[in-house]
């Protein structure tokens, strides 16, 4: 669940890891947490957990731990949306390691710009090698 922290204009990502039975919070702009952000995250987790109670498989979701793994960090105050999209993409394919940084943001933005009108988007890790917006447009 992507979350917009409106006061700071910052995007976060909260995920339910059903395999490991835990909630994971991804934040590309790690800074001291405040009560507002913690409340936002808590409410998002409660919403997810309550919706999961509808299935018999995840009846214990209200008791799952919340973890905040080290994740790639943005180098400025405005790329958080791009990082949330990259996190969602990488989570969907479950890579062994996340090999990107704020240096890859421009490349990822270009890939999205070219891919969306074509109706198909290559997974983010593939955008890090050999990507040329011009070449992609000519395909």
Automatic annotation (TrEMBL):
Keyword Protein biosynthesis appears in the UniProt entry: no
UniProt key word Protease: yes
One Pfam family this sequence matches: Peptidase_C48
Swiss-Prot/TrEMBL keywords: Hydrolase, Protease
Coiled coil: none
InterPro entries named in the record: Papain-like_cys_pep_sf, Peptidase_C48_C
GO-annotated biological processes: proteolysis
GO molecular function, one term: cysteine-type peptidase activity
Gene3D superfamilies xref list: Adenoviral Proteinase, Chain A
Limits of the Ubiquitin-like protease family profile domain: 1-91
Family (UniProt): Belongs to the peptidase C48 family.
Official protein name in the record: Ubiquitin-like protease family profile domain-containing protein
